[in-house]
Write a structure and sequence with these properties.
The protein is an alpha+beta fold. It has a single domain (4-84), classed as Alpha-Beta Plaits (2-Layer Sandwich). 25% of the residues lie in helices and 34% in strands. It has three helices and six strands. The protein has helices at 4-7, 15-24, 37-48; strands at residues 8-11, 26-31, 52-60, 64-67, 70-73, 77-84. The N and C termini lie far apart (46 Å).
Length: 104
């Protein structure tokens, strides 16, 4: 079993992931390429304190990129779309009032 911070790399904040979060209550993460669905489920539940209904994963291929005259490749990575239970949500953007900061 990997540590939960090794499984979840970062949340994906794109236009598509934002619309999925608002309409379908799904959250998208970049995860470790060797992580399986059970490890991803457990890491999200422990890290964010939410109930996960299902996890879908996709292997994303690396893209070809030019570096001057040399053509290289970006690394491949894995994406996980996590379906949260009804009434559960993860808020990546907290307002200053939530952080306990004083108003100016």
């Amino acid at each position: 079993m990997k540590r939960i911070h090794d499984v979840i790399r970062r949340p994906m904040v794109t236009e598509k992931s934002t619309s999925l979060r608002e309409s379908e209550n799904q959250v998208v993460f970049e995860v470790d390429r060797k992580a399986n669905k059970q490890e991803i489920r457990e890491a999200v539940e422990r890290l964010f304190g939410v109930k996960v209904e299902r996890v879908n994963t996709m292997q994303m291929p690396g893209k070809a990129r030019r570096f001057g005259r040399v053509i290289g490749r970006r690394g491949a990575w894995k994406r996980a779309v996590v379906q949260l239970a009804e009434g559960q949500q993860i808020d990546f953007y907290e307002t200053s009032e939530d952080l306990g900061e004083a108003e100016a």
